[in-house]
Amino acid sequence: MCSQTAKKRSLVWQGAFVLTLAGLITKVLSAAYRVPYQNIVGDIGFYIYQQVYPFYGIAIMLATSGFPVIVSKLIAEHGQEENRVNMAKIMKICWLYFGSIGLFFFVCLNIGASYIADFMGDSQLAPLIRVVSFSFLLLPFISMLRGYFQGIHNMMPTAVSQVTEQSIRVITIIFLSYLMLSLGYDLYQAGSGALIGSLTGGVAAAGVLLVYWVRNRRIQDDLQGQATVGGRQILKELFIYSFTICLSSLLLILFQLVDAMNLYSLLVSNGMEETAAKQLKGVYDRGQPLIQLGTVAATSISLSLVPLISTAKKRNDHKWLEDKINLALKACLVVGAGATVGLLAIVKQTNIMLFRNELGSDILAILSVSILFTSLAVTIAAVLQGLNQTIYPALAVLAGAIVKIVLNILLIPAYQTTGAAVSSVAAFAVVAVLNIVFLRKQQFRFKDYRGLSKIILSAGILYGALQLYIIVFDMITGEFSRTLTTIEALSAVCVGGIVYVAAVLKTNVFTREELDVVPMGSRLKSLGKG
Which residue among 60, 76, 295, 315 is least crowded, i.e. fewest CB within 10 A of its CB? Predict the structure, then answer.
């Protein structure tokens, strides 16, 4: 009995690592491909793609961190081993439920494409919205299989399918957009070609999962037995989890959707010429991959501690739990502050390196502050979910979306994309603050204020060092080119990373015990000695 429990616990930990790694790879790919894509299609082409992307982003998030989590949670709660027919009932009801949602989104986007495009202020987007609508037909199938495998603690099919989906999608986007523009197609047609990646990636993911399904003979055995769970109970939990888990996972996408729906139309309705508004929105959208990459870096360490939190919750070990939550928050603050301040210091160089010119560097500087708040929001949401408090993060996201909508309407007419950037930062801050309030309601709070002051000091040292490095670099080179700016940006990242890690270690932000728990902590501890 003990050996079986230990084996199951080992599978959970291995699975958590596999999914974390796959999630990191897919998020990096999802952010990184936008750079070559923008270089191929330019700012207006980037605007076209980013206007429609949030719809696909909803599908991909639901199929990755929404619906599969719900299925696996239902399987875990109602017993996969003890009563195998419960599994069959859960799978059947989930299939009908997810199928209905997928079909609903498909119909709404396909039939309503023209209405949505008109609401956005750009009727030429309708064909692109119709292309994206087909990805929702794949949603139930991919979600069900991922959820099933996660429910039986086999994370490899989910991980492989995620990486495969994103890789095929990125290849399709880059190849078709380049090919279509080379053949003389316009930017909207090239955008439609790029969005075909949402279908090729989904088909590839479905194919991978189907192979695992066929190979896993145990599945046929699992779908036999006598059900003890009621259909109403499953449906009730599906409705609750759909709101809480799915809404929490859609934080970044929802805010992008708000900008897609009203930023361009507000610019045009307030007197800006259409082409200029499209370019301005395209420049503004440069901030999305930077926020994504910064958030991935900030949350990857802290989220790896969440399984520890779930384990301690089951043991009712409040002191140990409090220590690990504080460590998760501290790790998030360290990496989030470093990513935010580092980008602020070299935002102009980064902009030129990635997007060919410095247009919108002031907007990117404002948006870079979002990295810290987003990292906090995501990390605390994961902690709250580890504490089985799933409704609070969802309410925070909902409040943040309302703030984003209201501030966009108030600020964009007067301040254009600067207003949109400020509204994004404010909305992310609202989500982070609300999650902090909700965490305090659970009798957990961040207590290491001395550590917080050391993080602020280390971030200040980082900013000063990068500013000094840029001054010296510019004095030595004495000329401007994109190649030199790229070298300057990349070398600044290396210098900044070394300075910041050294500052964090020398100011003893983390105790020796904390470094033992943080990933790569033992290696960092040895560096601190030196």
Answer: 315
